[in-house]
Each structure stands twice: as structure tokens, then as C-alpha cells.
């Protein structure tokens, strides 16, 4: 490393990936700085995974209380107090922010407050004061930002960022979008007593996930009372008193207290000086990197959502660790994006790893599908009509399980374990030879014997 420069590594963005990279590089003996213009922890900790999951838990409480009667308990969900949830969430996020700060401090990382941008290939400027630093390596880990369409009145909508800091909880909400964020917030609003409508421009939401699971989630959400409307899109938003009127392309209107747009996120690369440093961006503004997370400028790297590969926190962390091994450990390590498990915290949740059925049929000449839909044991007494869907996708020639999909309670917890099996190349015969834990929902994945198709 060059002693003539201020740092061996300068990281732009202190989200999950940036913090992990900074910590590991610091532990390896590098002189490291990280610049962050907002709160430590990035999207995941502050306006993403963590607070969202806490809100999902909150939205489940009325359902759990209602189900308690079947087990002999008397209780009632009488009132949801948004200020209490907000205050408790804020306290937990503040605790996590402090933990991130302590971890960086222990690793000897210098934290620089402010937005950093490249002045040239090795020089960075931070904040309005123009503080300048030089670095041998630069890592871009600035993440993504919600994208809003350009329609009249869009200023009257909020994104998921603002949803975590609302002054008051709505009585009526419209959620626009068909990705996992939109589906999750539709469930959060509905579960906390909000009259909720979700709009999606396509015929079925959760594009990219398995078709059977998408249909199952839609059916279950409608059964809960969420007003799902597909093949419809807002044309404009109109402020009306304390609320918003949504004008639709089918000629209809919807009135709501709050309109949340979750129609995608874009890499946060604008104003970072990347173009001036010669770093290539794609048409969506994402930083173009190779399998080692290196850009076309050899000493500038990028990880996480800003590269628009897989927008998942654990993936950003894995990319960070591979980067440090490559750049500072003398061990070039490519990032493996195959068979990454994920979970949509919808209601019910959707857990998945590997290929969808359609992806498998495009890749392999022969595919077997095993499908099971059932009522979980709990609901034989709870009174709930919620059903679980489980699906295995098997490549016929090798008998390898190439996809596991679960739509139902605890889907993420179930799929996390089975992800190890898929990653290891387990076969359907090995699934069949595994003795299940009874009575559980997860045992269904090792007891399915009859092919559906």
C-alpha cells in the first residue's frame, strides 16, 4: 500500500456491505475510512429489513390474538397505538446504530460524516466543506434509493423510506407496486387495521418468484381482506383535504389517507463523481463490476445494491468479505450468486431458494415438480383458514433438487435450512431418505413422493 495516501481503503457508504468491508479490511491491518451521510447501517438497519420485520411482527398480533380463542385463551386486540410502536422501533434502531459505530471503532476505522464523491481516481471530497482524502483503493457501497414515476401529483405519495417515520398512522392506504416491498407493506397496513388496496400494473405481482407461490400469496392476501387490483395503474394523484385521490387508468378513483409507492429502487450513484473517475455505469446507473466486484478502474470496487446484482443484505455482506480477501488478503475470491435463499415477509411469507419451475424448464430438458398444499396443524384449532404451499423442483436426469419454495408461516426459517441442501446439490432421493420432524410443516418437504407434473 502507498504510505503517501491518507488511507489504504476509503468506503463510500456505511450500510451492511460497507461496514463489513471496512471492519474486515481494518482487521487485516489496512488504514480504512468510511463516509456516510445518513445513519450507520444503511437501508437495512434504518429503513429496510430490520424495522420492516418489526412492523410485520406488529401487524401479526391481532391475528394471533384472534387465533388464541381456539386454544382456550380469552384476549382482544382493542387498539393499535402507532406512537408506541414508532418510539420502540426508533429506540431499537438507535441501539443498532451505536453497535455499528462501536464495531467500526474497534476495527480502527475512521468514520467521516457526510456524502463523499470522487474528485479524481484516488481523491475524495466529503461534505459541503470540501474535506479531501486520498486512498489507494475506493469501495462504492452507497446502496439504492426508491424510484418514483413521473406522473402528475406524485409529490403527494411517500416511499418506504418515509413509511418508517410517519407522524400518524393512516385509516386508508393505497400501496402501488408488485415487488416484495409493496407486498410486505400491504400486509403491514392491513394487519394493523388499515383499509388497504394494493395496485399493480401487471397481471400478477411478485414477478420473478415461482408462479404457483405468487398465485397462492395473492389468494391468501385476498382471503385476509386486502383489496388486490392487478392490471391497473395510477395516472395521477390529487391532493384532497388531508387525503389523496388516486386516478386510475381504468377510469376509476381511490381515496386514501396515504399513498405508498414501491415501484422499484435504483442504484444511488448520482453525484458520486464516478464518471469523472472513469468508472463505467450501466443504463440503470448501476456500477458495472466483474466477478470480483472490481470496476473497469482497477483500484475502484463496488458491492451491494449499487451494483444491482442481487439486492439482498446478506449478499452485500458476502460481496464485502470476498472483496477484502481479494484486495487485502492475497486470495482472489469471486462472488457466488447461485442458489441464494430469500424471503418475502408477506402475509403469509414466501421463502425460496434455487430455480423457479419456469427457470428450471428453460435450463433443463427434464423437470419434475412436487407440490403440496395443506392446512397447518395449528389452524385445526385456531379457526384460521390460512393454507401453506410447498414445492420442490427437481432436475430429472441428476435427481438434484434445484428449487425449494414455501409459502406459509415460518417460510423463511424453513427455507434457510433447506438452502444448505440445495447449495450442496442434494438429490430428491436424499430428501426422501431424510426422516422428518413430526408434527411440523417442514417435514412435508421430505415426505412428498408423488410427482405433480
Determine the CATH superfamily of the largest domain.
FAD/NAD(P)-binding domain
Distance between the termini: 58 Å
The main β sheet shows up as:
7 strands, mixed
Cα-atom Rg, whole angstroms?
A: 24 Å
Class by alpha and beta content: alpha/beta
Instruction: Count up the helices.
Output: 12
Give the averaged pLDDT, no decimals.
97
CATH architecture of the largest domain: 3-Layer(bba) Sandwich
Helicity, in percent? 25-40%
Report on the structure:
The protein has 453 residues and is an alpha/beta fold. It folds into 3 domains: 7-145 and 266-328, FAD/NAD(P)-binding domain, CATH 3.50.50; 154-263, 3-Layer(bba) Sandwich (FAD/NAD(P)-binding domain); 342-446, FAD/NAD-linked reductase, C-terminal dimerisation domain (Enolase-like, domain 1). Helices cover 31% and strands 24% of the residues. A hairpin with a 4-residue loop joins strand 5 and strand 6 (131-140). The model has no long low-confidence stretch (mean pLDDT 97).
Amino acid at each position: 500500500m502507498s504510505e503517501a495516501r491518507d488511507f489504504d481503503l476509503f468506503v463510500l457508504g456505511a450500510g451492511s456491505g460497507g461496514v463489513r468491508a471496512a471492519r474486515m479490511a481494518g482487521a487485516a491491518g489496512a488504514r480504512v475510512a468510511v463516509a456516510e451521510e445518513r445513519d450507520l447501517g444503511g437501508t437495512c438497519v434504518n429503513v429496510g429489513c430490520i424495522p420492516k420485520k418489526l412492523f410485520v411482527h406488529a401487524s401479526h398480533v391481532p391475528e394471533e390474538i384472534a387465533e388464541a380463542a381456539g386454544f382456550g385463551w380469552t384476549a382482544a386486540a382493542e387498539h393499535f397505538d402507532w406512537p408506541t410502536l414508532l418510539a420502540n422501533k426508533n429506540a431499537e434502531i438507535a441501539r443498532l446504530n451505536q453497535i455499528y459505530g462501536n464495531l467500526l471503532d474497534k476495527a480502527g476505522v475512521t468514520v467521516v460524516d457526510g456524502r463523499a464523491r470522487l474528485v479524481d481516481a484516488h481523491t475524495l471530497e466529503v461534505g459541503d466543506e470540501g474535506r479531501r482524502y486520498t486512498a489507494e483503493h475506493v469501495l462504492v457501497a452507497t446502496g439504492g434509493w426508491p424510484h418514483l414515476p413521473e406522473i402528475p401529483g406524485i409529490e403527494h405519495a411517500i416511499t418506504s423510506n418515509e413509511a418508517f417515520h410517519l407522524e400518524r398512522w393512516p385509516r386508508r392506504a393505497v400501496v402501488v407496486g408488485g415487488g416484495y416491498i409493496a407486498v410486505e407493506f400491504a400486509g403491514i397496513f392491513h394487519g394493523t387495521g388499515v383499509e388497504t388496496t394494493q395496485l399493480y400494473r401487471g397481471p400478477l405481482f411478485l414477478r420473478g418468484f415461482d408462479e404457483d407461490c405468487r398465485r397462492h400469496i395473492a389468494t391468501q392476501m385476498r382471503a385476509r381482506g386486502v383489496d388486490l387490483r392487478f392490471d391497473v395503474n395510477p395516472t395521477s394523484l390529487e391532493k384532497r383535504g388531508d387525503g389523496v385521490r388516486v386516478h386510475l387508468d381504468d377510469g376509476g378513483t381511490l381515496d386514501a389517507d396515504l399513498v405508498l409507492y414501491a415501484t422499484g429502487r435504483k442504484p444511488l450513484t448520482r453525484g458520486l463523481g464516478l464518471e469523472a473517475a472513469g468508472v463505467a455505469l450501466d443504463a440503470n446507473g448501476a456500477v458495472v463490476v466483474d466477478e470480483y466486484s472490481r470496476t473497469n478502474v482497477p483500484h475502484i470496487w463496488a458491492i451491494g445494491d449499487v451494483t444491482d446484482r442481487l439486492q439482498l443484505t446478506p449478499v452485500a455482506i458476502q460481496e464485502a468479505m470476498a472483496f477484502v480477501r481479494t484486495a487485502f488478503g492475497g486470495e482472489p475470491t469471486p462472488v457466488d450468486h447461485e442458489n441464494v435463499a430469500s424471503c418475502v415477509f408477506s402475509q403469509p411469507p414466501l421463502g425460496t431458494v434455487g430455480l423457479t419451475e419456469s427457470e428450471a424448464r428453460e435450463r433443463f430438458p427434464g423437470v419434475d415438480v412436487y407440490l403440496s398444499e395443506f392446512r397447518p396443524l395449528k389452524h385445526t384449532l385456531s379457526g384460521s383458514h390460512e393454507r401453506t404451499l410447498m414445492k420442490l423442483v427437481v432436475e430429472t436426469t441428476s435427481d438434484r433438487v434445484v428449487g425449494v419454495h414455501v409459502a406459509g408461516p415460518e417460510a423463511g426459517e424453513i427455507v434457510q435450512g433447506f438452502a444448505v441442501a440445495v447449495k450442496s446439490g442434494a438429490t430428491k432421493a436424499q430428501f426422501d431418505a431424510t426422516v422428518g420432524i413430526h408434527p411440523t410443516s417442514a417435514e412435508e418437504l421430505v415426505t412428498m413422493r408423488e410427482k405433480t407434473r
